[in-house]
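2024-03-11 09:14:02 INFO worker-7 job=invfold-0412 stage=load source=structure_tokens
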């Protein structure tokens, strides 16, 4: 059954997702993605979620990152359930707006299998490739040159300044920061800011842990525009890995568009292993009338 959860259900959805086995090599929808979207408020996050239930069990979670883009994850036990996948595809491909609008839309569903086969058979196509990168946390993380601090109210201005410099047209504000930290996913998250030898804030990252012993996600990571090319990206990615290791995570992972060769190089320099590319799905043909 497809439902849009209420605000009161957000914590339940997130905690249930934490229990699912997660493959970092695919970098699919993670609790950290829900946590990051909590910056827009609990009501907005709930409105952007679509969840599927089978006999009161959570079977799948979708996040509308944009009205035409759904990021989807399915509980491991349902990914090869033919009846469930068939019903899921019917919802995803419907043009009545229950999940996605008619016309051109995109779907991030990186676990493949019957879902991909059915959608491809209905005219969907593969979209641009993304590259997952994963760092094993079973060994000690190397040192780096930045002084790294957890973000607190006294360091919030530094965090915001780096974020706004790192991302063009960023709309991230102190108000959004406070909303993000009040979300249920932030109970197992940390935000870090890195300072150089001149005590300038030069890099930032937020890390999100899943279940204990599972992988944790970097979302987002950025280096201030005027401080690039000095190894700060590598350093803050190492700091992120160390933080997730302290939080009991098995791996640190991130995903970036394969065309963003600079980002891929930065993560690789920090010891993140490049995994096989994954592709989103796109429905490009307009619906006939």
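2024-03-11 09:14:09 INFO worker-7 stage=emit residues=289
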């Amino acid at each position: 059954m497809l439902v849009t959860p209420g605000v009161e259900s957000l914590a339940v959805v997130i905690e249930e997702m934490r229990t699912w086995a997660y493959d970092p090599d695919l970098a699919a929808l993670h609790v950290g993605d829900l946590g990051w979207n909590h910056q827009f408020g609990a009501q907005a996050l709930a409105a952007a979620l679509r969840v599927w239930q089978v006999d009161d069990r959570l079977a799948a979670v979708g996040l509308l990152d944009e009205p035409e883009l759904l990021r989807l994850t399915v509980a491991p036990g349902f990914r090869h359930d033919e009846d469930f996948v068939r019903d899921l595809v019917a919802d995803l491909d419907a043009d009545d707006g229950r999940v996605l609008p008619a016309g051109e839309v995109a779907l991030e569903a990186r676990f493949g299998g019957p879902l991909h086969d059915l959608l491809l058979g209905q005219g969907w196509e593969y979209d641009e490739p993304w590259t997952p990168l994963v760092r094993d946390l079973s060994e000690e993380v190397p040192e780096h040159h930045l002084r790294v601090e957890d973000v607190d109210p006294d360091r919030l201005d530094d965090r915001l300044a780096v974020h706004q410099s790192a991302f063009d047209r960023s709309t991230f504000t102190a108000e959004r920061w406070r909303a993000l930290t009040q979300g249920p996913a932030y109970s197992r998250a940390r935000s870090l800011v890195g300072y150089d030898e001149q005590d300038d804030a030069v890099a930032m990252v937020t890390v999100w842990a899943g279940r204990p012993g599972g992988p944790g996600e970097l979302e987002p990571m950025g280096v201030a525009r005027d401080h690039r090319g000095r190894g700060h990206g590598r350093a803050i990615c190492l700091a992120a890995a160390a933080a997730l290791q302290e939080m009991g995570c098995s791996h640190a992972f991130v995903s970036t568009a394969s065309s963003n060769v600079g980002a891929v190089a930065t993560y690789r320099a920090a010891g993140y292993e490049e995994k096989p590319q994954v592709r989103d799905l796109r429905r490009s043909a307009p619906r006939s009338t």
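2024-03-11 09:14:09 INFO worker-7 stage=report msg="The chain has nine helices and 13 strands."
2024-03-11 09:14:10 INFO worker-7 job finished
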